[in-house]
Amino acid sequence: MKLLVGTVGQTRAVFRVDAAGAVNLTQAIPAIGTDLAALIASPELLAQAGDVTGDAVAVADITPALPVEAPGKILCLGLNYIEHIKEGGYDIPDYPAMFMRTRQSIMAAGAPLIRPSCSEKLDYEAELMLIVGKGGRHISKEDALDHVFGYTVFNDGSVRDYQRKTHQWTPGKNFDQTGAIGPYVMTPDSLPEGATGLKIESRVGDEILQSSNTSNMIWGVADTIAIMSEFTTLEPGDLIALGTPPGVGHAKKPEPRWLRPGEVVEIEIEGIGICASPILDEADLAKAAE
Question: Which domain of life is it from (predicted)?
Fold first, then answer.
């Protein structure tokens, strides 16, 4: 099932997307609410959503919103593709690098990705993201895929000079409105097991920046869930980003390729969709809101 959370006019709803357009699930079943939280909590409600019929609206008329409005945790892997590790000058690890993002650092697909006033080194990172369905602790690799509600697209926008100010990556990964999510969420039955074998790409216009495949991840979905649930209880609605392939801007030769205001960066994952974000300078943010 392909799901989309967004607004039409002033009304936010959850939509099921198919070839005919987007069917308003919230209107048909009010208990579904205005983000994916209720569907994540209730497999029965999700099953009902698959049977909803009604007039479809054009997807282009929907302004995307975050799939989960208030995720409890946003957990992220770093260094999960070997060629990306090499381009960054790191040693290949035997345990994944991990960091967390704040709620203020993420936003919906289509919203501006903000280049902060203190830096011009805004980088892109195409990533697969999963949404936790069933929570748990000490989840085995064998059971891990049963804990996935769905998959979406993530752009882990990174301010590189701030990322490298300390051994911890927190500052560079948590500037406000630098992590774009969505717009679509695919339930696991709609994709290959563990979302493997999917082309993943980033681009600006015709310029292809990254191009790889989710099969190239060192730690796949099941591994990641098992590893993360060793140290924290995963909860329904948590978001987990699975790292980026090679081709990031800071490693480009002969000089880095930073995102610039006025550009639109697109992250596409085969079978899921495109997460597009216009780049806006922080100084122009207030003007854009007028």
Answer: Bacteria
